[in-house]
Amino acid sequence: MKITILDDYQNAVAKLESFKMLKGLDVTILNHTEKDNSKLAELLKDSEIIVLIRERTEISADLLSRLPKLKLISQTGKKSNHLDIAACTKYNVAVAEGIGSPVAPSELAWALIMNTVRQIPQAIQGMKEGKWQTNIGSTILGKTIGIWGYGKIGQQIARYANVFGATVLVWGSENSRNQAVADGFKKADSKEQFFSQSDIITLHLRLNESTFGIVKEADLGLMKPSAVLINTARAELIEKGALLKSLKNGKPGFAGIDVYEEEPIYDVDFELLKMPNVVCTPHIGYVEKNSYELYFEKAFENVINYINSNPTNIANPEALF
């Protein structure tokens, strides 16, 4: 069966130990992201199996209608809004889910917190320009770190914060807030309290219909001028245009961002990149060697099992019939 791996713009997949699992199979790796469905369909026209790297390509009904040979989509990590599961089922395309780990994204979120609060990138850039001690950062000790979304990643961030001597304030569902209290942390009584009292807010929500644009411009306006917003989850959690406008208005005063509405970004004039109070990283929360091996080993295992007529981890089993 013809297998195509999409969006490997780092040329990383073939270097993974897990890639050896596909030895002897007909595998093509696409090293760029194609946003045009017509062009993408042409590239995939003979593919019977495609392997997705997280959410880099949207699988829509329009695309699926152009791929009559496609039988399986093997997802690295869990499925999300980039996959139209109903359309996959309609076109008899099975979707195999993978597994993930909170370790790499948690560490990246914490690194952004540290770099943004202490203003490390700005200090480094200053030295590169022949300047010395151009800014004064701050410490984590004594600050209130607000965590919206108390799942595996949010819980890990809370533990990091505790070690650094910060107060943890959790917002989210009632169950999440109660779990935070059970774990020895504080819960916010309202969203207004959460945004106004936190020195650092980090978002760790799943993106779905109920969370799309859940962070409003008015929420950001409640933040302190000295406060930091960290987003390593999904750009669309924030109301469109609200972050940039709020940063320009000085609330919050700083941001650390790893996710964007349109990716990848090659435009050096992208506005957030030009703001001295913003630290940007190119969606690398999950881009880490151990995570890649974990993601792809499971994705390739699902591929091999499907080829051997033993499909595993199928999110829409009705598509198999």
Descriptive report:
The protein has 321 residues and is of the alpha/beta class. It folds into 2 domains: 2-100 and 289-319, 3-Layer(aba) Sandwich (Rossmann fold); 102-280, NAD(P)-binding Rossmann-like Domain (Rossmann fold), CATH 3.40.50.720. The protein has 11 helices and 12 strands. It has helices at residues 37-44, 61-64, 85-90, 103-118, 120-128, 152-163, 174-182, 191-197, 217-220, 242-248, 289-307; strands at residues 2-5, 26-29, 49-52, 72-75, 94-96, 144-148, 167-171, 186-187, 200-203, 228-231, 254-257, 278-280. The strands form 2 sheets. It has a 7-stranded parallel β-sheet, with helices on both faces. Helix 4 (103-118) packs across helix 6. The radius of gyration is 21 Å and the shape is globular. The model has no long low-confidence stretch (mean pLDDT 96).
Key traits:
Rossmann fold, oxidoreductase activity, acting on the CH-OH group of donors, NAD or NADP as acceptor, 3-phosphoglycerate dehydrogenase, alpha/beta, 321 residues, 31% helix, 12 strands, 7-stranded parallel sheet, 2 domains, oxidoreductase, 5-stranded parallel sheet, NAD binding, NAD, globular
Helix/strand layout:
Blueprint: E1 2-5, E2 26-29, H1 37-44, E3 49-52, H2 61-64, E4 72-75, H3 85-90, E5 94-96, H4 103-118, H5 120-128, E6 144-148, H6 152-163, E7 167-171, H7 174-182, E8 186-187, H8 191-197, E9 200-203, H9 217-220, E10 228-231, H10 242-248, E11 254-257, E12 278-280, H11 289-307
Parallel strand pairs: 1-2, 1-3, 3-4, 4-5, 6-7, 6-9, 7-8, 9-10, 10-11, 11-12
Helix pairs in contact: 4-6
